[in-house]
Amino acid sequence: MTAKLIIETATNLHKIAHLQDSQVQAFYIEEQKAIHYVGNIYVGRVKKVVKGMDAAFVDIGGDKNGYLHKSEVFLDEHEMFTERIKEGQKILVQVSKEERGTKGPKLTTFIEFSSSYVVYFPYSGYVAVSKKIAEKEKWKSFGESIVEGTEGLLLRSAIEGMSPSKVEQEIVTLRKEAEGVIGELQAEGTVPRVVYQREDFITNMIKKAKMDKLELIVDSFETKKKLQASFPEATVIFQREKESLFDIYHLQKELEKALQKTVWLPSGGSLVIEETEAMTVIDVNTSRFVGKTSQAQTVLETNLEAAKEVARQLRLRNLGGIIMIDFINMKNKEDGEKVLQKLKTETEQDPVRTLIFGFTRLGLVEVTRKKERDSLQHLLLKDCGVCKTMGKYKNEKKTLDDIEGELLSYKEEAAWIELSPLLSFNREEMEKWKEEQGIELYLTEGGELTPFYRLRHIGSREEVEKRIKENKAEFLF
């Protein structure tokens, strides 16, 4: 199966769209200047042990101490958490979840090292095989014959068709890498310090595609060269035009749709997706779909269609944590099982671990999906500063990205951009941003409480300055 990845790096945000059969399956987005920690391994220092929480707080060098729970510590049988973890000690930890808000990053001592074929765990003690592999027992036996002591393995679907000897070479390479990192705990050096850094954002996200064939379309020649070296089996195409790649492939509109609450199904049914701090709630409705046979059949068809789309929306929006799905009520128990099975089948394609727990007593389907990155809503929207309710609008990062995308289609000397007073921009960062653009920018504040921006005029510097003066607009930066 071939996956097409559109990779845009020309704007403030690095954006990747994963397409399959011409449909967007996922968006991966990161600020160019963002610093992320997931996957990094540190020699940290235990700052505080909280017995009542069965947890410790560890300094890994960031603004906030990391959180290490008892369940994430490798303990011998009958060993107590407070016997293994003490204040002041050095400890080797890996970041499993980014910091968010007031919470520091989540840590684990069950460190892992991965390649395209294998995930190696020095301390897990188990061997697992991808569900997509046909000869599961053969590969499981192979894995169990390779591991030593407390080691563990996850054999990915990409090993299918490979020789066991080549997979073994991968495991040996990862084992040596792990031994070097683990040895850093006893080595001299400052504490805290990073001893293993994850791959860069683009490389990491490409690996998540997990497809037999990859077609990568990029807007940077440097990125093309780098990806050709990292993924020699992939087709890498350099494409740079006046418009951004996301505009050329009509992905900007798809991204906008992924930020909206309502998703329309092909039949006329709909999903309403509400993302809150505690959980995500998805409501399924027949809406405009009336069906052609019985009401029960109409409900079943809508729910089956919704199950497929829900799985896609989880990937598309990168929704994580607790997810409750309110399918349309089905009186027939067998119909409910069909919908659950459809949801399970569709979520198996998700590279992020997703568990389906079935119907609750209230008739809701309970799902959990591992939180690895911020959702699109958390990354690109912000709470309404006026009503303080569920209102959301584009944040500063998304606004700048939209402006850059629009400016790429022009080759003029200057532009006048009007910004909403609801958006808060740092002066120093904005001055730097203006310098990076290939056009003279004049920024003023708009009079309306609009959450976006307006490109008021574009042309020569003289024309733009004249228009601003005529409108008596005041400069922001």
TrEMBL record:
Sequence ranges assigned to domain S1 motif in this UniProt record: 39-110
Organism: Priestia endophytica DSM 13796
Coiled coil (residue ranges): none
SUPFAM superfamilies linked: Nucleic acid-binding proteins
Cofactor(s) demanded: Mg(2+)
Signal peptide as annotated in the record: none
Alphabetical keyword list: Hydrolase, Magnesium, Metal-binding, RNA-binding
Name of the featured protein: Ribonuclease G
The keyword Lyase appears for this protein: no
